[in-house]
Amino acid sequence: MRVSASWLARHIDPAAIPASPDAIGEAFVRVGLEVEEIHPAPEITGPVTVARVAEVEELTEFKKPIRYCRVEFGDRHRYVICGATNFAVGDLVVVTEPGAVLPGGFAIAQRETYGRVSDGMIASAKELGLGADHTGILVLPPGTAEPGDDALETLGLSEPVIELAVTPDRGYCFAVRGLARELATSLDVDYTDPVARIDVPEAPGDAWPVRIADTEGCARFVVRRVDGVDPAAPSPWWMRRALLSAGMRPISLIVDVTNFVMLDLGQPLHGYDASRVAGTIEVRRAAAGEKLETLDGQTRALDPDDLLITDDSGPIGLAGVMGGASTEIPAPEELEPGARVDVLLEAAHFAPAVIARAARRHKLPSEASRRFERVVDPALPPVAAERAAQLLVELGGGTLAGGRTDEGGVPAVPQVRMPLSLPDRVAGVHYPRGATVRRLTQVGCAVVLDAADDGQGVVVATPPTWRPDLRQPADLVEEVLRLEGYDAIPSELPAAPPGRGLTPAQLRRRAVSRALAEAGHVEVLPFPFVSDAVWDDLGLAADDERRRTVAVTNPLDAERSRLSTTLLPGLLDMLVRNRSRGADDLALYAIAQVVQPREDPPAMPDPAVTARPSDDEYAAIRAALPDQPVHVGVVLAGNREPRGWWGTGRPASWEDAVEAARLTGAAAGVELRPRRAERAPWHPGRCAELVVAGTDTVAGYAGELHPKVVEALGLPARTAACEIDLDALPLREELPVPRVSPFPPVAVDVALVADEAVPAADLADALTAGAGELLESVRLFDVYTGDQVGAGKRSLAFSLRLRAADRTLTSEEANAARDAAVAEATARHGVALR
User: Which among 255, 250, 194, 236 has a CA at the least distance from the CA of 8?
Assistant: First the structure.
């Protein structure tokens, strides 16, 4: 939320507001608001003057519109070249004269261009640092100033703007009304709510028939009608300047009025062309198959959860998000000269969750939806509608029609009881007498004191309608502590209890992450949410357990609304994203939880919040939660070994994915042995399952992804991946100490001819079992297929490394160990020594 000091001064005594913007920012910080940035006044020097356009000569010999203009400053004039066409003779404009320097160091000087001498420049709002609008030059409303006046003073260009980050629980600060209240509290000065200054007279009858069919989505709907508004009437400069300071572009009087009231009071408004509204306005949910063309020109397919504004013709607006094109108030240039418009002003109170879901579902965030999803004051609609109507009458020459429609009402606000001494006990500070009542009154609570058995008294507070977050004593305590100052609360660092550090599971996770990073992999944090369509892209069968996911009630992305059961979708998405930014050789990994719900989970209990759940309730909650194991995922694409003067490099392959899985196991203190397997989304002939050595536990899978998966997801060819369930590995708190022998090793090689169907890992297991304790390692170093071994056979050559801990091995001992290893492989798999 951006706000200028002059706008705050509309609601606070200007003399009480600090002159320095930094001091204003510090005052906001004292009451818990975060100052995101202080935008200084635009750096403009030299003559910048208001002028009237006296003559315009169209230079038609150029491809684009070029105008040679005479501008008058009272008793003097200049000629300037301008390419904008949004002004006419008689308009007031801002001219930067030679010698002026605009923001960014843009110096203005007399120069020859397009065959004419341009003696200055007619400026746009962007060139003056007033906003981002560069579609045309800045035209001032009549009466704003006189030709020859200093434009810097007239436009208020010397005023900085404070930008605040408003948290979701402080929705009332998304308006100058709320920010002024907070600033007045911080400065300890009087504050008068601007709502109290707006007269809302009696208006018997309805302005327009309205029916609320969905009272859960819409608690209140107010309509006020203003007839005969001149849509071409200019917005006054004070309103335009306020909108520009808030980061909004002035558009037309009717739009500017609704935007100004929204920013000032916090109530979003929408204006309808009354001549285009047919019959009763109804607030309801969307029906299946309904569509709506919104004001941005897009036709949107509606969801049954969408809350709509409709009339007899169908949907005319997506409630709280954006209006429909069918009832849009036409722009002045679309109407006949002198035409008037009858305006229906809508001010409503919508359910925050409904609006938030709709804005995310349609990827349509708006200033209105940002406020509705943070809760708008339900008592505000008639006041805001009346204020906007008064401005349209005053500035647009409209006539206020009789009647006011006010369907629904203000939900009851429950009282909160709090011991008077509770803030002192929580903060450990003895606050002055009356501080609690004073601070709660400042935030808008109606406070009375009640007697208590302990003689300390009880505060009975009725929160204001704009503070739905004040619902329990802890909320009131937070307000007292916040306004009294967090800096007044003593800070004591608690002593760290001895003997506590990282758990074994945490140590294992760090060891795995360190090992993968040292091997050249880069850690990423993939998006944990997926859509149901991703499982088809991964080629998962219809009954695959990974399709059973948990839906998120309020997803960040409506298209990805389910928690993922595997790390692969997020990792592959990040691989594609990085490749689109020019990174071709990638080895990414992630260590994170996945969510794997049970097929028939028990119902989740709903314990009271007044006390800690009982052991039985806690156990029931744990039983209802889905499993959330920690997985390790790795994806590889491009070159694993880069090319250079030493060679062409080596592309990543399924072997690298298997090695990453084995490295994960080694870092976790267990041996993972690969075994041939078939599992989507991996290639059937290039997929291995990783088995914990000595057990039948399958910890994960590794290999090359299926070509169809690669094509569906837009991945590079031969993309490889692995995923290991880290929680499935046995947790060893004491890792085995490596045995170091001072005696030399003996290396012997054996070549075994076996059926092609016999996995190399199974042969390695057999050799290990046969060689006994003397075997230090076994390594496959060659595979041969051809006529020399026969059809359906292959030769696998292993290097056996033998060593004794207490002696140098003799050749007889080494040969005996080798023979025993070959004999065991022969007995298990029928191999022959080549």
Answer: 194
Q: Which of 406, 471, 466 is nearest to 218 (CA)?
A: 406
Q: Which amino acid is at 63?
A: K
Cβ neighbours around 26 below 10 Å, total: 13
Q: Is 418 exposed, middle or buried (0-12, 13-18, 19+ CB in 10 A)?
A: buried
The interaxial angle of helices 504-518 and 654-667, nearest 10 deg, is: 140
DSSP state of 799: E
3-state helix, strand, coil in the chain (%, to 5): 30, 30, 45
Backbone φ, ψ for residue 804 (5° rounding): -105, 150
* Alpha-carbon gap, residue 345 to 588, rounded angstroms: 54
CA distance linking residue 417 with residue 460, whole number of Å: 5
Parallel/antiparallel/unpaired status of strands 639-641 and 586-593? unpaired
Chain CA centroid to CA 37, Å:
20
Class in CATH terms, 419-463+472-488: alpha beta
Give the pLDDT of residue 735.
62
CB contact set of 407 (below 8 Å; sequence gap of 6+): 210, 211, 212, 220, 221, 222
- How would you write 453-480 as a 3-class SS string? CCCCCEEEEECCCCCCCCCCHHHHHHHH
Q: Which of 634, 624, 689 is nearest to 656 (CA)?
A: 634
For the chain, domain boundaries: 2-41+161-197, 48-155, 210-408, 419-463+472-488, 504-594+629-728, 746-833
Supply the CATH classification number for the domain 2-41+161-197.
Answer: 3.30.56.10
The predicted pLDDT at position 453 comes to 53
Placement of tokens 């837009």 in the chain? 714
Inter-helix orientation angle 237-245/253-265, to 10°:
60
Distance CA 702, CA 71 (A): 75
Q: Could you say which architecture CATH assigns to the domain 504-594+629-728? A: 2-Layer Sandwich (3.30)
The CA dihedral of 590, 595, 596, 598, to the nearest 10 degrees, is 170
* List of long-range contacts for 645-648, beta carbons under 8 Å, 24+ apart: none
Whole-structure pTM value: 0.71
Nearest to 777 by CA among 814, 803, 812, 743: 803
325 pLDDT higher than 90 = yes
The CATH homologous superfamily to which domain 746-833 belongs is: Ferrodoxin-fold anticodon-binding domain (3.30.70.380)
pLDDT per position as a tens digit, 103-160 = 888 899 999 999 899 999 999 888 888 766 666 788 898 888 899 999 888 888 778 8
User: Using CA atoms, how far apart are residues 778 and 775, in angstroms rounded to an integer?
Assistant: 8
> What is the CATH architecture assignment of 210-408?
3-Layer(bba) Sandwich (3.50)
